[in-house]
Amino acid sequence: MNMKVIYLFILSQLILGSVNLAQDTLKLDQAIVIAIQNNYDITLAAKDSRIVELDNTIGTAGMLPQLDLTGARSMSINNTYQKYYDGREKQSPNAKNNNISGGVALAWTLFDGFNMFIQKNRLTELENMSDIQLQSVVENAVADVIQAYYAIITQQKMVEVYQEAMTITSERKRIAKAGVTFGSNSELSFLQASVDYNADSSAYIQQVKMLQNNKVEINRLLCRNLFEPFEVTSDIPVEPGLLFEKLWLQVKEQNPEIRMARTNLSIALLDRKSANSTLYPRLNFSSGYTYSKSESEVGIMSMNRNRGFNVGVNATYTIFDGFTQNQNRSKAQIRLESAKLEAEQAELNTKAHLQRIYNDYQTNLQLSDFEKENIELAMRNLAIAREKYRIGSSNDIELRETQKKLMDAENRYLTARFRSKASETELLRMSGQLTR
Q1: How far is CA 49 from the centre of its chain?
Q2: Domain segments of the chain: what residues?
Q3: pTM greater than the 0.85 cutoff
Q4: Looking at the DSSP assignment, which residues form a beta bridge with residue 308?
Q5: Which pLDDT does position 186 carry in this prediction?
Q6: For 3-38+112-281+322-430, which CATH class?
Q7: In b/e form, how buried is each residue of 182-208, taking b as 16+ CB within 10 angstroms?
Q8: CB count, 10 Å around CB of 215?
Q9: How distant is the alpha carbon of residue 36 from its chain centre?
C-alpha cells in the first residue's frame, strides 16, 4: 500500500484518539483528519494508486514464462458406409468415435531487445506518477479544508462587526428618540438612525447567511452531514517568515505538477528505448508435454495414442515491415522532445505562479499590519464621536461616517488577513509541505 496513505492514516488515528467527541468546537487539525479519512477524491485516488501498484510486477513486464494447460474430449456417432477398390463393402451403423487430448505448453521470451526491462522501469515510473497524483489530491483536499475553515472564521468575525454596528445604531435610536421626546432633537434624527439600524440589520442577516453557507461547504469537504453543527476557533494565524528562494527550492523538489512533468519525461525516454528495442532479434523458448488418444469403430485403426515432450528455440528478426518500426521510432523521438518542452514549461509556469502568490502573500501581510493600526485609530475616533453625539455636540452624519470608517477598516483587515492565510496555504501546497 502507498506509504503516504499509511502515514496519513496512522496520523489521523493518533489525532482522533486525542479528540473529545463531545466538543462542539471543530479544530482545524480535526477537520483535516476527517477530510483525509472521508474525502471521496482521496479514496478514489488511493484505489487508483493501488491498481497501478498491483500492475508493477515482472510478470506484467513480460519477464516470466507463460504456462498453459489444455484439455479436450469429444465423441461422435456416425452411420458409415465404406467401399474399397477391391470391391469389398462395409457398413457400420451407429459407429462411435472417441477423442481425448491434453497437454502442457510453456512459452518464454528469452530476449526481446531488452524491452521487458524497459517495460518494468516504465511500470515503476507509472507507479511513481500515481503516488504523485495521490499526494496532489490529498494536498488539494487539505488546502480546500484550510481555506474553508478560515473563511468561516472571517465570516464569523464579520458577523460580530455587524452586531457591534447594530448596537451602536441602536444606541443612536435611543438617544434620538429621547431627544424627540424632550424636544431637543427633530424627528429627522430618529428616522435617520432607524434607517441606518435597518441597513445594519440587513447587512447582518446577509453576513449570517454567508457564514451558514461556508459551514455547509466545509461539511461537504468533510463528507459528512451538511447541517452538522459546530463552532470554530477565533484566530487566523499567519506565518510571516516565508522566503521565496527557500520556497522555490522546495517547489522544484516537491511540487506535484513539476514532478509529474519530469515523470512524463522519464516515461517518454523509456518509450523511445522501447521503440529502439525492435532493432534487435527476438529469442523465444518453448516446451511442452502432449497426450492424445483416438478410438474409432470404423477405419484403418481402432485406436491411436500419442504422448511425449517437445522443446524448441525460435529466433526472429524483422528485416522489413513497411517502415513501421522507423515510424514508431520517429514518433517516440518527437514525444520525447515534447515531454522535455512540457517539463520546462511546467517549471516556468509554476515559478511564475509561485511569484504571483508570494507577491499576494507579502502585500496582504503589509495590508493586515496597516489595517490593524487603522482599526485602533478608528475605534478611538468612534469613541470620541459617540461621546460627542451623546452630549449633543455632533450630528448623525458625523457619527455614522465615523462608524462606517471603523466597519470598513475591520472589513479590510479581515479580508487581508484571510488572503494572507490563503496565500500562505497555497505556497505550502505548491512546495509539498501541507501533508508533512
Answers
A1: 11
A2: 3-38+112-281+322-430
A3: no
A4: 290
A5: 64
A6: mainly alpha
A7: eeebeeebbebbeebbeebeebbeebb
A8: 23
A9: 11
